[in-house]
Amino acid sequence: MAELNPRFWEVFFEVYENLPRQGPGNRACAAKALSLCRELRDSPAILDLGCGVGGQTLLLAELTSGSIVALDNHAPSIERLQRTIAERGLSQRVKALVGDMADPKQPPESFDLIWSEGALYSIGLSTALRVCYELLKAGGYLAFTDAIWRKENPPPAMKASFDFDYPSMGGLQDDLKAIRDTGFELVGHFSLPDEAWWDDFYTPMEARIAELRAKYTGDLEASTILDQLAEEPKTHRLYSDFYAYEFFVARRTSLGK
């Protein structure tokens, strides 16, 4: 991701930390991905990498009876998730930690399921897949979402917006190859439906941006940053047929790499 000034991140997190989730996804998609993990044990040890404020972490706590370690490098997001965990009486099952996805400081081969929605790209997909492989038990599952191109030659302005955040973004076959090259066995994959972009992500994002426009009336820098952030849902309305969020489920084979 390109380097940005501190004010950008201040406004960015004012928007994103107040959303139900920080990327596309919903309960139905999480349940569908979990259904592909057919031999997952009854109370799995789960690692949620790049958890943000924990929208999907809480779904995992609802949809499974396992123990969950939720990890993110942004301390305020983890603090918010820790409060939510305590409020919901989940402290015995769910632990939220500040940490580095590239070096999670977790024991090797200690998880039955690693989950990551829209986060692995931030350290490079190939690097992230290797990290996940080493942390999974033999036969363990990896479930993750990643942005992929669906069409070639996207409009230049739209391509530039993706290059800003994810310059190495590829197509479906690129992700499938990265999964195979790491030693995983692909279990299945599916594209997130449009409601998974809007219900808990872009619709509340646009509402939050509108709130902050009122707060920052007369602040040109903040207003410019809000304009920049508002381009993301606008881009999706115009060009969503050019790209997708794909949910992948893969497995570390029992024989190992």
Number of domains: 1
The CATH topology is Rossmann fold
CA-CA gap between termini: 31 Å
Report the radius of gyration as a whole number of Å. 18 Å
Quickly give the structural class: alpha/beta
Q: What characteristics describe this protein?
A:
7 strands, 7-stranded mixed beta sheet, Rossmann fold, 257 residues, single chain, 9 helices, alpha/beta
What does this molecule look like?
This protein has a seven-stranded mixed β-sheet, with helices on both faces. The chain is built from nine helices and seven strands, in the order ααβαβαββαβααβααβ. The model has no long low-confidence stretch (mean pLDDT about 95). Strand 2 (about 65-70), helix 4 and strand 3 (about 95-100) form a beta-alpha-beta unit. The protein has a single domain, classed as Rossmann fold. Helix 1 (about 5-15) packs across helix 9 (about 220-240) and helix 2 packs across helix 3 (about 55-65). By secondary structure, it is α/β, with parallel strands linked by helices. About 45% of the residues lie in helices and about 20% in strands.
